[in-house]
Design a protein that fits this description.
The chain is an alpha+beta fold and 114 residues long. It contains two helices and five strands; from the N terminus they run αβββββα.
Length: 114
Amino acid sequence: MLIESSEPYLQISRMVIFATVSVCAAFFSLVLWFVVRTQRTRFVSGLEGMEGERGVADTDIRPEGRVFVHGEYWDAFSAEPIAKGERIEVVQVVENLRLEVRKVNEQDRVSGIG
């Protein structure tokens, strides 16, 4: 009705329609891009954020000990023995706030992973 009218004051310019649709599409595309980017980022806080963090063994870990990660001391355990002062990486956080850790290999540090 607004476009197919014989009266010029009842018609909407096609440029106005195109501009409105373009602005709305750009806005929704930007919002969608932010949502997807947010969903792909890893956790940076809480227990989920501890996975992958690097630290140092505060005591020998055979199979249990203490580590210094993210500015805090944690109780930890490992499947392999880790000596005091060695670099470690958090594998996961298990019940009672204990960390499962693994030794960081020299190759990991050289390749830029750690």
